């Protein structure tokens, strides 16, 4: 850790791509989203809104701007927000990023432009550099978003090195959703100055912390926040291996289903709030047999979401 | 051909994803775009603006709406326009599509939502159905856009069949940019009622016409429009094989370079208008050695763009 940088300007810990509730006409349901964010914060989990598992890429730029405004207006702490702002068009990325920073968000999670494939590092560098210059704020903190299985546009270590060298106080971290621990480890070994490496699944949380990483940004923290945070807070304790093993059991259960609909079904079930199970096309809800199967498997693990229902009711 | 459908409501022939000129700040250059569109129309080539090779996915929804307005205001015939309107978010797809139809565009070319991968046919069907219902216009004509090498979200034959069955006067064609002739041929063999099959490269134009297809939507029509149109107009003549062979030579030359920057460099060279060579990040221009190499190779083919320079000057 470097003393010349304020600790609180960079994220560490557990964040989640907050799942996105929809009304019956598929418009975003800001009130339910606010409640889920409050619930996450009460569990020490930060808000990577508009991530992949938030269906962030199924929302328009205007919808995302309106939702950010609604969250901040509702009193959600912008310091705990790391919105996904990377779009295909750099003008949209600039618009979303500038808005997030104007609201006081401590950082943004930025996909590379993901439509064109086999793009050069030079071209991706030019995109990030252009966005940084256009946003033009010393408060901007970018966490790169490496998710080759979905975006199909990887962020190479050489590209990160160049961005960190040229924009050391702006390009401050990465979420590695490659699912490839060797890639995460290679980044950690580079030891870029106070660079924050987050894994995209809690499956790698203990390994990440043991190798100098900063935490995880994981979709399953929507449903299992306390247990994931507990491992983060206790990774140096004797019980860390056991905590990791317990996390893996839950994660493995969800991985037997399409992840986003399974997370939403889980919240719908434990909050007794069936509207949560809705997705926006092209994604669809689980079938009713998948629903039953999921809940059955979770019961076998004695899985629960203590406090969720109260939180859900409190602000309804 | 069905007599109960007006011939002029569906496209056939040669169209091109019109290349997108940029100003030095990477804003779209509407004036140069208007000139390129006028040039294309003078060569009997229709306007598939905002296609992949138009860098359409590097533009924001607002930029695309403004450009459509500028083109129509400049007198470009909306009947000849098939704008690309498929975005990741269905709300953006609806907005762009509705605007295109309100301007009188004869059709739109619609990518599936392309961020999420391994999406079900059911989910893609739900997206297209939702867009059709929300746009809610009997003037809407959708040409599906199948481009698995870039979008990584294919449009299956079963999905097309279902859409054509449920929306026979709306889902009226496809651009097949798979580069896989067996896929094109399989669609043609289905013989959906007056369904228009366009190949994504003139390499397959003669084969497509011989098997009941409707033409091509090809990026190289930006630079070689007259020759491509000549084959379309004469595909049943004795010289068709020779015309196809000549087209292939030009196409093969361009395929030795990154296609979009090569097309722009070609126009920049033959129009003596260097600003045409600019791309928006993440895409970049050719290097100067690639530039020279391209022009050298084109000269060996006696390639030329007759009339382009006059057209370019006439409206400057």
For the structure shown, list the relevant keywords.
disordered N terminus; 316 residues; 13 helices; TIM Barrel
Describe this structure in words.
Two copies of one chain form a homodimer. Chain A is α/β, with parallel strands linked by helices. The first copy, chain A, has one domain: Alpha-Beta Barrel (TIM Barrel), CATH 3.20.20.70. Chain A is built from 13 helices and seven strands. A seven-stranded parallel beta sheet of chain A has the order 2-1-7-6-5-4-3. In chain A, helix 2 packs parallel to helix 3. Chain A is globular and about 50 Å long. Residues 1-7 of chain A have low confidence and may be disordered. Chains A and B meet through helix 2, helix 3, helix 4 and helix 5 of A and helix 2, helix 3, helix 4 and helix 5 of B.
Structural class of chain A: alpha/beta
State Rg of chain A. 19 Å
Low-confidence stretches of chain A: 1-7
Strand order of the largest sheet of chain A: 2-1-7-6-5-4-3
For the record, the CATH architecture of chain A stands as Alpha-Beta Barrel
Oligomer: homodimer
- Tell me the β content of chain A: 5-15%
The major β-sheet of chain A equals: 7 strands, parallel
């Amino acid at each position: 850790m470097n003393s010349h940088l304020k600790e609180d300007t960079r994220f560490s810990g557990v964040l989640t791509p907050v799942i996105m509730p929809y009304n019956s006409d598929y418009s975003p349901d800001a009130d339910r989203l606010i409640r889920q964010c409050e619930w996450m914060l009460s569990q020490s989990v930060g808000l990577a809104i508009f991530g992949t598992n938030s269906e962030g890429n199924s929302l328009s730029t205007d919808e995302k701007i309106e939702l950010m405004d609604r969250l901040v207006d509702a009193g959600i702490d912008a310091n705990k927000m790391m919105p996904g702002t990377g779009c295909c068009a750099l003008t949209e990325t600039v618009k979303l990023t500038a808005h997030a920073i104007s609201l006081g968000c401590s950082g943004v999670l930025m996909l590379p432009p993901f439509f064109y494939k086999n793009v050069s590092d030079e071209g991706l560098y030019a995109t990030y550099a252009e966005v940084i210059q256009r946003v033009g704020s010393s408060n901007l903190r970018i966490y790169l978003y490496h998710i080759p299985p979905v975006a199909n546009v990887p962020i190479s270590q050489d590209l990160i090195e160049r961005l960190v060298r040229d924009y050391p106080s702006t390009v401050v971290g990465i979420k590695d959703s490659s699912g490839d621990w060797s890639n995460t480890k290679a980044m950690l070994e580079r030891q870029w100055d106070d660079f924050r490496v987050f894994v995209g699944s809690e499956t790698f949380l203990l390994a990440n912390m043991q190798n100098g990483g900063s935490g995880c940004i994981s979709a399953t923290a929507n449903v299992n926040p306390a247990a994931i945070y507990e491992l983060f807070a206790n990774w140096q304790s004797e019980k860390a291996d056991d905590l990791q093993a317990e996390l893996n059991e839950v994660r493995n259960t969800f991985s037997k289903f399409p992840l986003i609909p399974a997370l939403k079904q889980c919240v719908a079930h434990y909050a007794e709030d069936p509207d949560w199970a809705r997705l926006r096309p092209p994604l669809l809800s689980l079938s009713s047999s998948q629903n039953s199967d999921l809940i059955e498997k979770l019961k076998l693990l004695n899985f629960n979401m203590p406090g969720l229902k109260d939180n859900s009711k409190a602000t309804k």
